[in-house]
Specification:
The structure is a single chain. The protein is elongated, with a radius of gyration of 20 Å. It is built from six helices and no strands. The chain is mostly helical.
């Protein structure tokens, strides 16, 4: 399953942060509140999905940007071709709208 790869990558980052701070799985679980040491083990091994709130809390505990936990994950690998096309269309629209807005503002300033 492709999502297992995502869970594993996030889990590796969680383990990296925890080990960097010399915390046990039990200590991290305690800091998170609603988790057990075995839950942390499952997350770190990619055997269980961690909720977004959990990822946010981990980033907060370790004073890391959430992107640290999510980098190196190419989400397009997990999207359908239709979803990739839709995302590209939205991105192109936003770029066009931003460009038009900037050009309009420049025209207004140079009047």
């Amino acid at each position: 399953n492709k999502m297992i790869k995502v869970y594993r990558k996030i889990g590796e980052k969680i383990a990296e942060l925890r080990e960097r701070e010399n915390l046990s799985q039990e200590e991290l679980a305690s800091l998170l509140g609603n988790y057990t040491a075995s839950s942390i083990s499952y997350f770190e091994n990619g055997q269980r999905k961690i909720k977004v709130e959990g990822i946010m809390k981990i980033a907060e505990i370790f004073c890391e940007d959430i992107s640290f936990l999510l980098k190196e994950i190419d989400i397009s690998e997990y999207l359908s071709p239709e979803a990739i096309e839709f995302r590209a269309e939205i991105q192109n629209r936003l770029k066009t709208e931003r460009h038009e807005k900037v050009m309009s503002e420049l025209r207004e300033r140079t009047k």
